[in-house]
Amino acid sequence: MPSIISNQQQEQTSIELKRQTQDSNQLLFSPTLLQRLGITSHPSTIRFITLSEDAVLLATASLGYVLVWITATHQPIRRLISPAPTSLLFAPGSKYIIVGSSDGRLEIFDISTARLMKYLKDRGNIGQIVGQIIDPHTNSSSKVASQSSNGEIWSIVLNPDKSRIATGGAGGEINLWNFDQEYDEDEEEEELE
Predict the structure, then answer these.
(1) How far apart are CA 52 and CA 159, in angstroms?
(2) Where are the WD repeats (predicted)?
């Protein structure tokens, strides 16, 4: 007898990536689709999605805002207003979320209050200090200047030691940012109160 399946049907699919070794096949990666939720949360296209480090929170970006969800309940807990979000990253500790945008801004939101704490703005064709390059051999650093015609930020990634992020965007530009980096007053940084 056929059964009726809800929109939140659980599916099991697997892909295994193995590496051939002399002794055996070593399993490297085996993702499994656990559940297709079928939840419609945004009136327009979801442009980006990311999970917190502990997978307790999920964030989705759509035109005009970011929603932060609790994964266990599938319920949104915060709506963060961001005009043109294109990329997302939970900062280490998952208390803040970093939003990259199509207008070149990096926005930092406090998740507990939904407050925009700070933003950094790309100044377009003007040369600007955008981050630091760290030499892993000498552990020395130098500031990175950027000159771009289009500051769109389309991707954000956290480095393994969680001390910096890299952003990528239009025009093939890659920028490095330190979490503890101090900026001069003449650089465009806005700290909001």
Answers:
(1) 15
(2) 146-180
Calculate the dihedral angle through the C-alpha atoms of 78, 82, 83, 87, rounding to the nearest 10 degrees. Answer: -110
Residue 9 lies in a domain: no
Count CB-CB contacts under 10 A for residue 12. Answer: 8
Q: What is the 3-state secondary structure (H, E, C) of 129-188?
A: EEEEEECCCCCCEEEEEECCCCCCEEEEEECCCCCEEEEEEHHHCEEEEECCCCCCCCCC
pTM of model > 0.70: no
Whether the CA torsion 150, 156, 158, 163 is positive or negative: it is positive
Residue 39: pLDDT band with limits 50, 70, 90: low
Q: How many whole angstroms separate alpha carbon 68 and alpha carbon 91?
A: 13
pLDDT tens digits along 107-129: 999 999 999 988 776 544 334 44
Phi and psi of 22, rounded to 5°?
A: -65, -35
Task: Report yes or no on 167 lying in a domain.
Answer: yes
Instruction: Report the CATH number that the domain containing residue 114 is assigned in CATH.
Output: 2.130.10.10
pLDDT in tens, 133-159: 555 555 555 444 444 445 788 888 888
Q: Are 100 and 171 in contact (CB under 8 A)?
A: no
**One-letter amino acid for residue 18 of the chain:** K
The count of structural domains within the chain is 1
Tokens 């759509």, residue?
62
